[in-house]
Amino acid sequence: MNRARRGGGSAAVLTVLLSLLTGCGAGGGDQRTLTVLAAASLTESFRDIGDEFSRNNPGVDVRFNFQGSSLLAEQIRQGSGGDVFASANEEMMTKVRRADALAGQPRTFATNRLTVVVPPGNPAGVESFADLADPDTSVVVCAPRVPCGSATERVESASGVELRPVSEENDVKDVLHKVVAGEADAGLVYVTDAESAGDEVEVVDFPAADEVANEYPIAELAASGHPELAERFVEFVRGERGREILDEYGFGAP
Amino acid sequence: MPLPLRFPALLALALIVLPVLGLFARIDPARLPALLTSPAALTALGLSVRTALAATLLALLLGGPLAVVLARSRFPGLRFVRGCVLLPLVLPPVVGGLALLYLLGRTGPLGGPLRDWFGLSLPYTTTAVVLAQTFVAMPFLVVSLEGALRAAGTDYERVSATLGAGPWLTFRRVTLPMLLPALGSGLVLTFARALGEFGATITFAGSLRGTTRTLPLAIYTEAQADVDAAVAMSLLLVAIALLVILVARPKAVEGRG
User: Fold this and answer.
1) CATH code of the domain occupying A30-111+216-248
2) In chain B, which residues have their Cβ closer than 8 Å to the Cβ of A138?
3) Most buried residue, A3, A133, A169, B170, by most Cβ within 10 Å?
4) What is the CATH number of the domain that holds B146?
5) Complex ipTM tops 0.85
6) Which residues of B touch A2 (CB under 8 A)?
């Protein structure tokens, strides 16, 4: 292979790499993509909502980014883009609003509260929230930095029970996974996560949880390339059908 | 040097260096000293250094002999075994964490008996952090050592044997001194990788301040709320990594050994 051809080869490789990096090159046609950044606890319900929204709006592809609300809020502040943001608490939505990253007003569309989940058979015999303080019971919770973790702290002060968790996870789904995997005697997750886990966990309900419900706000993002579509999605979530689906997954009405 | 290589080479360097510089650009100088010395940062740093040192030691005690066996023995399936050693390098660390969890967790085939018979439970302990770090970092040591052993060949060892030295004496007086440069670089790489371990740790060991929340985990947790704090801790990690690589890196890796 001579020198010139080698040079051409590396240039071609570079072009391919750059087009991969920048996402150019692939044509889209009429298909429009709506990117929804949503709290991890909305994973199952929003997937259903997204499917139905796509059916009602042909040519619209709804893409989700489900992560902890705190992480999403920070990504939005850093300019990661997206059309709609649905947060698991008001604090993270406020954070985004303060960064001037919202196009519309945040509107509460659902509420959620914590519950205790235990592995099937309840090996540690957890009967009440107070049982979680037993040092022989390994409890996994969300880190205080994330919405489910700040809700956990509020439940602790409301009930007067101080937990000594073996791990503080960054995401409510990670807490659920530790319980499902049988690696924790109990975990504090949202009612909706417990619902979505089905038979893989048992639920121990407790009264203090009712006092500290999280409110879920949703809003269109300023960075959105399809503001009208983003608004239609928000309306769909808040509309009758959205309400039904959220209900199914255990979310409370605002 | 052919000119067409320079441009992509420059781009490659930029891809590695610029993001790290971007981190420096994000610093809030006013808050930096307080953030760097915050209890959360110091606790995480201390835990990270301790566990990474323990993981490096464990890698040496277990991975060292493994490298010698791989380089010096012949048996069917050797290539396959050598491939397996590389697995942690190519697997996503979360997979490593899940694998450890399902083996050594409460219900795992090894973790169950450990718990039932000896009352030992590994997840959520500092030991679990060390195991996760060793899992991910040990291949660096094994690969460094095995490569050096194979490159050095067996001539000196054979001469030593003909002069009447037994295998253990030959290993200590001939093989080991030859290996020292590779051993140094392997240990440094292992330590640096253990220090940066995240995915396997958070999956297998969980995250609790002072017990399992190492510096990378603390950075991830802080990034959820206080980005300045996360950036400050990231700087700490970058600084230590650079120190380890630049200062402690033996000459062998630089191509002069």
Assistant:
1) 3.40.190.10
2) 124
3) A169
4) 1.10.3720.10
5) no
6) none
